[in-house]
Write a structure and sequence with these properties.
Pfam family, one: adh_short
Keywords: Oxidoreductase
Protein name: NAD(P)-dependent dehydrogenase (Short-subunit alcohol dehydrogenase family)
Number of helices: 7
Number of domains: 1
Organism: Caballeronia udeis
Strand content: 5-15%
CATH superfamily: NAD(P)-binding Rossmann-like Domain
Strand order of the largest sheet: 3-2-1-4-5-6-7
Helix content: 40-55%
CATH topology: Rossmann fold
Distance between the termini: 41 Å
Oligomer: single chain
Largest sheet: 7 strands, parallel
Bound molecules: NADP nicotinamide-adenine-dinucleotide phosphate
Family: Belongs to the short-chain dehydrogenases/reductases (SDR) family.
Radius of gyration: 17 Å
Structural class: alpha/beta
Shape: globular
CATH class: Alpha Beta
Length: 237
């Protein structure tokens, strides 16, 4: 997929990785970048077009797809993570919100924008996934479940949209320097580096992008011996 000249839409583009995606797309030569945000007044970077977008509101998502009918590259970046375990969580609220945003919200976006991408020649649809799309960590189990569901969506869409020529890319990353992982004192990769690596993967028509070194290591460790991987997690938690 050629980024130069593309018309992109990034969800959750007012801060964090989404903001980095929007800037990296402009640097890579995208002709137009819609910056989707729940509060578009918080999109302040020059060069992007702020668009009101709450991905959990299906009617608003459909309206945005009508408004942005020239999109050729969709980046589903918006997401939430409430650091909530399955059993010890005080209620189901976090689990519902994570599934509603990360899975159903992304699905609303994919359903609304797939015809747009198809009408514009195929284009590309990118879902921002995580290493916890592959395994579940006890500290944020319900987030892991939602990112695993989003991975299943990504892999299914790739087959479903092949006929219309849409490239479907899953981007995997470990910890990123954004608000989402701010409470964790662990090594992280900058949002700029993740965005650049993801866009390079899209340009190279990769189905899966391991956007940092840690994601490639975790993928290999799980393939080698998943039992040993989980035993390591159990020892640390
Ligand atoms: N940070 C990490 O370590 C990490 C690692 C792997 C993958 N990821 C994934 O990377 C993506 C970006 O995360 P981030 O680290 O940039 O998180 P972040 O700093 O918390 O930013 C999340 C963004 O998503 C937006 N958002 C949340 N719910 C939304 C909704 N219903 N509709 C529209 N926008 C919504 C937020 O908007 P508001 O400002 O309105 O809240 C914000 O712009 C997520 O999909 C996340 O799962 C993150």
């Amino acid at each position: 997929m050629q980024i130069k000249g593309a018309t992109a839409l990034v969800s959750g583009a007012n801060r964090g990785l989404g903001r980095a995606f929007a800037q990296a797309l402009l640097q890579a030569g995208a002709a137009k970048v819609y910056a989707g945000a729940r509060d578009p007044s918080r999109v302040t970077d020059p060069g992007v077009i702020p668009v009101a977008l709450d991905i959990t509101d299906p009617n608003a998502v459909i309206a945005t797809a009508r408004e942005c009918s020239d999109v050729t590259l969709l980046i589903n970046n918006a997401g939430v993570m409430w650091m909530s375990p399955f059993i010890a969580a005080p209620s189901m609220e976090a689990a519902r919100d994570e599934m509603m945003t990360n899975y159903f919200g992304t699905l609303y976006m994919c359903r609304a924008f797939s015809p747009v991408l198809g009408a514009n020649g195929g284009g590309a649809l990118v879902n921002m996934l995580s290493v916890v799309s592959w395994f579940t960590h006890p500290m944020n189990g319900s987030y892991c479940a939602s990112k695993a569901a989003e991975r299943a969506l990504t892999d299914g869409l790739r087959l479903e949209l092949a006929e219309q020529g849409t490239l479907v890319v899953g981007v995997y990353a470990s910890f990123i320097e954004t608000d989402m992982a701010a409470v964790l004192d662990v090594p992280k990769t900058s949002a700029d580096a993740i965005a650049r690596s993801a866009i390079e993967g899209v340009a190279n028509k990769q189905y899966e992008v391991f956007a940092d070194a840690r994601s490639a290591e975790i993928k290999a460790a799980l393939a080698r011996d998943a039992d040993a991987f989980y035993a390591g997690l159990a020892r640390k938690s």
